[in-house]
Design a protein that fits this description.
Elements: E1 9-17, E2 25-28, E3 35-48, E4 51-64, E5 70-73, H1 76-84
Antiparallel strand pairs: 1-3, 2-3, 3-4, 4-5
């Protein structure tokens, strides 16, 4: 007898807020030109049957909630430097 069992695998991202500073939320997006970019901690895992198994990527990113634009950054100094060049609202 032949038994068919589908294998469901892929990747999934888990994001959380980088910090609670109000100046790191609502930043200007260079792609869609909205004030919808926030700093997040991002972790991407390879999943098997929706169970995260192997980490593929982790780091800190600026991410737009409207157009999904993202850019990596390394630390607080680089993030503060990026927020200094924001377009005025």
């Amino acid at each position: 007898m032949f038994l068919f069992i589908p294998l469901i695998c892929g990747t999934r991202e888990f994001n959380s807020a980088y910090d609670n500073k109000p100046e790191h939320v609502g930043l200007y997006c260079p792609h869609c030109h909205n004030n919808s970019v926030a700093a997040v901690k991002s972790k991407e895992f390879f999943t098997f049957y929706y169970i995260p198994l192997v980490p593929v990527h982790w780091g800190k990113q600026l991410r737009c909630s409207i157009c999904s634009w993202k850019q990596d950054f390394t630390g607080d100094a680089e993030l503060d430097n990026m927020t200094g060049y924001q377009k005025p609202q």
